[in-house]
Every structure is written in C-alpha cells, then in structure tokens.
Amino acid sequence: MISLIAGPTDRTKIFRFGNISEDEYPLFLKERGIVLARNFSQINLVPDDGVPLDIAKAYKMAGGNLVVGYIPKGGHPTLEKYFNLCDKIEEFDTGWSGLNTCLSLRGDLITVFGLSPGTLVEMAYTKYHKRYLGREIPILVDKRTIDGTFPPELLDELRLQYFSSNNELNKILQRFEK
Asked: How far is CA 19 from the centre of its chain?
C-alpha cells in the first residue's frame, strides 16, 4: 500500500492548532512512523522541510521501505537539500498546481498530519478524481494534529476518516488491506 503524506511545512501549526506539544512531537513522530512502516511499502511527499518530511524520517527509522519525493518538472533548487532524505525523486510535469492536485493519484490514499492550504488542496481535489476518473481516494486525518473537524460541506464529497491513536490508525489500515 502507498500513501501520500500531507501536512504543513510550518510544523508549529501542529503545536498551535493541534493537540501535540513541541516536547511530545519526537515521540509522536516515532509512534506514527512505526505504524506507517508496518503498513506502507511506500510513502510519497513533496520533499520540503516540515511535517511530511519529519514523518518520512520516522517511517525510515522504523524500517519503512521507500520514500519518494515529487517535485515540479525542472526542479526546485530550494528543495534540493531535502532530496537525500528520499530514496527517489521524481519530477511531475504539471507545475506546482498539478503537483498539489494530482499527487494523490500516485498512491492508494492520503494520510494527513496537520493542515495548511496546500494540504487542503490535496484533500479537496480527490473529489474530482472520484467524479471524473472514477477513483475514490481515502483520506486519513490525524485528529490530534488539527483543531476540530472538517465542516460537513467538505465531508459530503470526500472519503475522510479520522484517527487519534496508533491503534485507530492500525485498524483503519488493516481494513484497506482486505
């Protein structure tokens, strides 16, 4: 199973709006990394400083297999310093907007740790994948990393599930494997 890891570049959003303190963050990452390593053969992300890259490091430390970083075609020099944290870098021939709207198609689901405008775009665009491509992409949101829940207007068109613990995440992922 392959997951896009989505979340904010600004990791303080998790501390400010979620239910994780800066002191708890390393343990949180370690615990989530273990679950992801057990369940995903590959994780995808945009290789930029922030929560997704922290999750990828934890995934690899826990024995995770493959981290693939996606960038817009032509590269992006400010991201190059993070390429060494990925096993592979692939270019996406659609610019930044295409990357944010279509990267979810490169995996089986999206796992969200925190929220930012880019994360919201990645989640919201799954509506169109379902509607026009016939591909429903589940979205798993770590409720500890956001403030509250999403409004019903969004939930009406997205296949979104919340989890708050490693056990809850494990149970959700086991259902996908069947």
From this structure: 18
**Measuring CA to CA, which residue among 105, 96, 102, 44 is closest to residue 72?**
96
pTM confidence score: 0.94
Residue-range definition of the domain harbouring residue 159 = 2-177
Q: What CATH number does the domain containing 55 carry?
A: 3.40.50.450
178 confidence band (pLDDT: 50, 70, 90): low
Q: How many separate domains does the chain show?
A: 1
On whether the CB atoms of residues 110 and 122 are closer than 8 A, the answer is yes
Distance CA 139, CA 159 (A): 6
Question: In the prediction, which pLDDT does 147 show?
Answer: 94
